[in-house]
Each structure stands twice: as structure tokens, then as C-alpha cells.
Amino acid sequence: MKMTLSSLASMLGLTLKGEDREFSGLNTITDASETEVTFLSNPRYVKFLKDTKACAVIVSKEHAGDVRSAALISDNPYVDYARAASLFVREQGEFSGVSELAWIHPDAEIGKDCVIHPFARIGARSKVGGGTAVFPGAYIGEDCVIGESCCIWPNAVILAGVTLGDCCVINSGAVIGTDGFGFVRHSGMMFKIPQIGTVELADGVDVGANSCIDRSALGATSIGDSTKIDNLVQIGHNVKMGEQCLIISQVGISGSTKVGDRVTMAGQAGISGHLNIGDDVTIGPQAGVPKDIADGITGGGSPFMEGSHYMRVAATMPKLHEMNKKIAQLEKEIDRLKALFSQEEK
Amino acid sequence: MKMTLSSLASMLGLTLKGEDREFSGLNTITDASETEVTFLSNPRYVKFLKDTKACAVIVSKEHAGDVRSAALISDNPYVDYARAASLFVREQGEFSGVSELAWIHPDAEIGKDCVIHPFARIGARSKVGGGTAVFPGAYIGEDCVIGESCCIWPNAVILAGVTLGDCCVINSGAVIGTDGFGFVRHSGMMFKIPQIGTVELADGVDVGANSCIDRSALGATSIGDSTKIDNLVQIGHNVKMGEQCLIISQVGISGSTKVGDRVTMAGQAGISGHLNIGDDVTIGPQAGVPKDIADGITGGGSPFMEGSHYMRVAATMPKLHEMNKKIAQLEKEIDRLKALFSQEEK
Amino acid sequence: MKMTLSSLASMLGLTLKGEDREFSGLNTITDASETEVTFLSNPRYVKFLKDTKACAVIVSKEHAGDVRSAALISDNPYVDYARAASLFVREQGEFSGVSELAWIHPDAEIGKDCVIHPFARIGARSKVGGGTAVFPGAYIGEDCVIGESCCIWPNAVILAGVTLGDCCVINSGAVIGTDGFGFVRHSGMMFKIPQIGTVELADGVDVGANSCIDRSALGATSIGDSTKIDNLVQIGHNVKMGEQCLIISQVGISGSTKVGDRVTMAGQAGISGHLNIGDDVTIGPQAGVPKDIADGITGGGSPFMEGSHYMRVAATMPKLHEMNKKIAQLEKEIDRLKALFSQEEK
After folding, report:
1. What is the pTM for the complete model shown?
2. B&C contacts, CB < 8 Å
3. Quick check: C123 and A172 CB within 8 A?
């Protein structure tokens, strides 16, 4: 795709200072070539302005004077970079209509303007909303409801009875609706607790590549509006998660835990089952959460501690061996003092 | 599905107290609607009996009097709930016979009453036992032996030469038999150790969605009878695991480790390679196990510690910073005492 | 496959001592049957020589005298075992040519001697190099460049615009090129930062089963020559990784981190974003890395500590509770000493 700086400026409402020209894309301030536009948002990167090869920089008024190429002056360079980038998003899966190589049950309902790719599979009585794309190898079970404008990427699996709102994105290899892990070892045998519930995703939920959301034993595992889940995340059965959460890669949430709204969980954090995690909670990377967390708490560590407390404990951790040695020294010194004291007493 | 309370009672051998009626399913005591049955097993939930909307409660004799709707009196409400739930398990993958859209090598043997879905792929000389279902996108390599009544869910991958017993469940996206990770960096080059072994699953093994079990370098990676593995678990090459283990989500077990029978590993635990983990061991969430563990041990932490010891260490962890401050104070006080003492001596 | 000991000896340049015979494969010293060859490399296993059933042992001159069956004398038994094993690697995916059941865009270019299996999907303008195999269910997006002699295993997903060098192996269920996790919660809304970059793998890169490598926001996420990535690994957007790295299972690397050459990361380690990890760094299992690491450092722990320091801290950890108790005792003893002292002063 080719575009001119002036047309970009007019689309985004920016002021172009410098010569108009064609450009081919966007890139970072250090990696941009002469045919690419970059942006300056983080003040730490001002130093790179003098060496960037970019043909134009989306920049605040304040720093526009430091730009050697063309400047695209913006009130919020980060937001305008994101808006510019959205013009360059690569379309994926060039295809239209419903492939004859897809397997669609005659009782499934496919909405208007859906794209159903070859080797997709859609089960009986499932409804796929208008404008939704189902990529090759994606599997949709029986009695599913898929909203409008969803994207079900290659080899994603949505098992029977699962419900998705509008504008959901299920990335490649994600699995929604496998049986929750309900087994009981009892009198020398292994019993399975039937998982007869389902999974419900509200509108605008993203599920990352190869992430898993388990079907509940009873009722539904549910994820609220606009919650975004990264890759390789495990969400156990009967979890109820609120809106606008950000769940980073490799997090695991055990069964029946309730998670509030606007919760952020950093990579590899693990949350035990049957807990209540409040609204606006932020959980650090690799944290281990064994107890409820109240609204608004930020923290980390295993076991989970509140923010500044956790920072102090983490900073102390590398001193652990030294601490132990000091304790031994103190013991000796106290023994010596006691000896001296008792000697003197005599 | 619709059923009456009296027919449920007669199927499960329960006593119905109260009016007979139709119901449509089961749900939890707090979420059940007027057309659903619930159960009371955990005494903590007795308080919900007065407000539940359920049309009937599976309940012990002891609590039957507190039920406001119909009661289904049971000697073991949890077991009878599980038995009732099994009547409501949703059938998945409505299809029968062998699809013409599957790719089956002419030398593969497909047993009686198998369901082979569209886009499944079964390789040369593989044998699929009677009553087994192979879902869309599932891949079975060459020379595999798949037992009877197995379920190979959508997009699961079973590579060449792998053996499964009867009644195994391979969930969506699970990968059985990839090459173990055998690489050696040597004299400026990277060498691969060929992985010429295989994977053998005994009867009744479940492998969770997107879990991986690697092919051994030599011999077989093996998993014993009725062992259940959750989602996103990694089992390295040459691991030998016993019977009736429960391996929870995101656990990683490194190569050549031996795991006994009835071992439970909680979420995100990591086990080093070449270890012996005994029978009846329980390993806590996020534990890091660098050494052998004897039979019957329960514990957690990183490095792994035995139960009550680990609990004390974990409870002390949040005091770490405070401990360090106290040590500094004690040092000062001892210095002061020493100074006072030497002053006095003079 | 059947082969004689003498033909193996001549292929690998080994000296056969003992009777020639046919054998059927290789196995470990403890598990080999009478028709299998084994090897002795680790001196810890010398004790097994007397009981092994193997019909021959690849062994150093030093230990050849202890072998009861035939000996295949080698200067480097481990390397010669690996070379012997490579003769027994099972061929997978018996198929040749381009399947009529694959979906290949007319504008894709398929090189000489490629094997394109049924249900594979290759998008517009993508180029697949000669000798590459694309297994069933594998997805290759638009405008991809796949080098020569690559293996794209079943159900692997390579999204649009991704580039692979020669001899890359993308294992089953791996996902290359999903959108990086770029979301911003702002004034009550969730915004997505478009991810318009790509992923570039150099020559000889292996990506494990169900691992994920995310597309960059701008520019490319890149992995250097001969780097080997195990199963269930997450590599965030804009990560730049060097050559000959070994990234073990379930590691997570956050966005924009730079990793040098010959770096080893053990299982379940987590690396924060925007860091610089130097060359020849080794990071232990479950380590949490919040800061840059200089060249050549080995270490572990969370937060990451250098080697011997970390070992001491890890060894002290189980004493934490005891340390806390000692501190309390010391406090008491000091109080007593102070009391005695002040008493005496009076």
C-alpha cells in the first residue's frame, strides 16, 4: 500500500510540516527506512530523532522542531500512530463467501456476509452471526451461538453449546469449551464428574492462541465485555470473569474463581480456585494467589503480597543467605556477651 | 431434554419427597432456575437452601427437612449429583460412520462403530479400535494403535507409532509424540539427537487441550492407567508416569523423570529431569522440584519442601523485609552493648 | 528396519568386537532387548553393562572389555549413538506430491519436491521452498516466504507475511504470527494497538508444539539461526532473539526483549519486556527476570540472581521460618542482656 503524507495528515487531522511525499508503512524510530513514517511518544526516544531515517515523524508540537524530516504534528502522537497503523493492518485469509470445502451441518444458520473457509466445520443448530469469519480448520460444535463480526482463526475449536457475543476474536489453536478437569480418586478408582455446563463470552472478548477456557460442571464459565486474554492462558471451569480484564500469557486461573472488572494479571501468574478477586486488581508476573484480593489492590509474589510490601520483600530476597549468616554471627556475639557478663558477675 | 423428578429418583434409587414435576437440567444451588434440580453436599452451602429456586434438591436425610421445594433424599448427594449429571451430558459431534471427507490410508484399519469425521487424517498401518471417534482436523500418523472407545477431539495430533489403550480421551489441540527436545550445542554448531522412541498411553488416560507429550529418544514415554492430564501440560521425553495420577494445568515435567502411582501435581508446578517421584505424592501449585521425592510426601514451594515445613516457610515469606530490618537493629544493639561493656571494663 | 552390526560399524567407522548379527533398533542400556543395540556414554551407567540384554553396545575402548555381548568401539559413544539413531528415525506422513485435497491459492508458488498433504491451506502469493513438507491441517497465510526443506507439522499455523528460512521445523499446533497483545485500557474503553509487523525466523529454527510467536506491532519479531524452541513457549511481539538459543518448555518472553546468541532458558522461566539479555546467558527453571542480564551470566531464581549467589539463596530458603524464630530469640536475649546491664549500672 502507498499513501502520501498529506493524505495521512488529512485523514487523522494532523498538521504536515515539511515536504509531501509517498510512504509505504510505519516503523519504530530506530528501524524505519526512508519510505516509512515513525512516531515519537516516549520522551526517552527523543535522542533518536536526529538519526532516524523515517521520511516523517508523528510528533507533538513541543518536539516538532527537532525533526529533520517531515513532521506530522499531533496532540497525542501515540494515539495517532495507532490510528495510522490501523490503515496498514494486513488483511488475512483472502477468501469470500462460503467454501464448498467447508463442512456445515444443514441445520446450521450462517449469517449475511460470513466468510467460511475450506476445512472449517460448523455443527448442527449453530448460529453464526453476520460478518463473522471462520478460518480453515476451525471447529464449531453443535448448538453454538457465535455473534456478529467475530473472527475464528485457523484451527480454533469451539465445542458444543458455547456462546460468543459480537466482535469476539478466537485466535489460532484456542480451545473453548473442553470439559473442566473434574476427577475424583475414590476407593481405588478414578471417577469423572460430568461437565454439563458451558462457556459464555460477552462482546469484544479476545482469546489468545492456544489458550483454553473450560466448560463448567454446572452453569457457565463466563468472560465479560472487552476482556482480552493472551496466548497459552488456562481458565478453569466455572470461572466468572468481569469486563475489560487483561490476562497476559501463560496465566492460569483455577476453577470457580470470580474475577472482577478491569483486572490485570501479568504473565505466568497463577490463581487458586474458589477465590474472589476484586475490581481493578493488578497481579504481577509469576505471582501465586492463594487468597481473595480486595478491590483496587496491586501486588505480586508467591504468596501474593500488596505492592510496596511485595517490592520490599523481593528486594530483600537476594540477601537471604547473607541474613542467615548474620543471624549466626549475632548468636555468637550474644553468647560471647553473655559469657563476659556472667564472668564479670563472678 | 426433559425428565421427571420421579423418574430420576427411580433411576438413581433416591426417595422423592414432595410433588413430582418435569425438570430440564441441573445447576448450582445459587444459580438453579425453577426448572432445574440442584444438590447439597458441602455443609457450607446449607444457608442457600432457603433461597434456591431449584424445583428439587438432591440432599441427605439430615438436611431434607430444610428443603422448601421437592427433596431427592440420597445417601451420598455428591455422587448422586454426578450420576444425575451424567444423564445430561451433551453429545458432541453429531455424525456417524466414516466421512468421505476424511483422509484414511488404504492400509489403515478402522474398527466397528467408529466415527471418523470430515477432515480427519489416519495414516498407513494404523489401527483404530471399535467405537472410537476421530473428530475433524484430528491427525493420526502411521503405525499407531488406538484402542477401543477412545475420543480424539478436534485438531488433536497423534504422531507416528504412538499407542493408546482403550477409553482414552485426547482433547482438542493436544499433541502426542512430537520429538523430545534433544539438542546439543557443540563446537559452534547445534546438533539434534534423533528421537526414535515413542509414546504409550495405557487405558483410560485423558490428555487435556493443547497439552504435549513428547516422543522419547529411545524406548517410550509412558503414562499409566486412568491417569488424567489437564490442559497445557508439558511431559518431556522418556517420562514414565504411573496410574491414577492427576496432573493439573500448566505443569511441566522434564525428560526421563519417573512418577509413581496416584501422584497429584497442582497447577504450574515444574519437575526437573531424571528424578524419581514416589507413589501417592502431592505437589503444590507453582512448586519447583529439583530432587527426588519419597512415597507419600505432600508439599510445595520452590525448592520443594514437605508440607508443614513449606506452610511455615510460605507464611514467613511476607516477613522477609521486616526480618532484615530487625537483624540490622539487633546488630546495632549488640554493638551498643559491646561498647557499653568495653567502656565499663575500662 | 533390519541391519547388521557389521554394516553399522562400517557406516559409522566403528570397530566391531564380537559376533556379527542382525539387529532391529536402539534402546537404553536398561531397556534394550536382545535384538537391540545400546550405548554407554555416562560412566554412571557402567554398572548396567553386566545385565544389559542388548546384542551390542557402542562403547569406548576403555569399557569395551566389560561388554558381555558384541562391542562397537567408538571414540565418542554418545555422538555415534546419535548417528546410529538417525538411521532409525521413523518417516512420518507417508505421502508424496501435492494433494488434491489441499487448498492452495492459484497465486501461491510451490517449490520442487514439496509434499503438500490433504487439508493443508496455502494462501495467495506465498512461496514454499523446494523439499518442504506441509502436513494436514497446517495453515500458511498470504505473502509468506517458507524456505527450503522445512517441515510444517499437522495443524501448525503460520499467519500472513511471516518469513521462514531454510530447514525450519514448525511443530504441531505452533502458531507463528498472531497479533501481539497490544491493548490499552483508556477512559473506560479498551483500545487495540494494531500489530502491523511480522515474524522472521532464520535458517534451522525449530518451534515446539503449541508454542506461540507473536507478530510485532512494527517491524519484526525475529529468531536467529539454529535457535531451538521447545513446546508451549510464548514469545511476545518485537522480541529479537539471537542464534543457537535453547528455549525450554513453557518459557515466556515478554514483548520487545532482546536475547543474545547461545542463550539457554530452562523450563517455565519468565522474562519481562524491554530487557537486554546478553550472549551466552543461562537462566534456570522458573526464574523470573526483571532486569537486563550481561553476557555470560548463569543464574536463576525470582528475582533472577547470579549462579553461586542464587544457589546459596535457594539453599537458605527452607530455613526461612527457623531464621525468623531465631531472630525473635535473639531479640529476647538482647533485651535480657540490656536489662541485666542497666540493673548492674544502678
Report:
1. 0.96
2. 187
3. no
Distances (CA, A) of C7 to A85, B12, C226: 62, 67, 32
Contacts of C288 in chain A (CB under 8 A): 285-286
Q: Is residue A274 annotated as part of the catalytic site, yes or no?
A: no
Residue of C217, C272, C330 lying closest to A330 (CB–CB): C330
Query: So what's the ipTM on this one?
Result: 0.95
- Closest-CA distance of chain B to residue A306, Å: 10
One pLDDT digit (tens) per residue for chain B, 346 residues = 789 999 999 999 999 999 999 999 999 999 999 999 999 998 889 999 999 999 999 999 999 999 999 999 999 999 999 999 999 998 899 999 999 999 999 999 999 999 999 999 999 999 999 999 999 999 999 999 999 999 999 999 999 999 999 999 999 999 999 999 999 888 888 999 999 999 999 999 999 999 999 999 999 999 999 999 999 999 999 999 999 999 999 999 999 999 999 999 999 999 999 999 999 999 999 999 999 999 999 999 999 999 999 999 999 999 999 999 999 999 999 998 888 877 776 6
Instruction: Of A18, A20, A17, give the one whose Cα is nearest residue A5.
Output: A20
Is the sign of the CA dihedral B326, B330, B331, B332 positive or negative?
positive
Give the position of cell 528415525. Answer: C89
Put simply, the answer to whether A250 touches C254 (Cβ < 8 Å) is no
State the burial class of residue A21 (Cβ atoms within 10 Å of its Cβ: 0-12, 13-18, 19+): middle
d(CA B29, CA B276): 43
User: Distance (Å, rounded) from C-alpha A275 to C-alpha C160?
Assistant: 40
Q: Which residues of C touch A314 (CB under 8 A)?
A: 303
Q: Is omega for the bond preceding A303 within 30 degrees of 0, making it cis?
A: yes
Tell me which residue in A212, A219, A334 faces B210 most closely, judged by beta carbons.
Answer: A212
Q: C16: distance to nearest CA of chain A, Å? A: 49
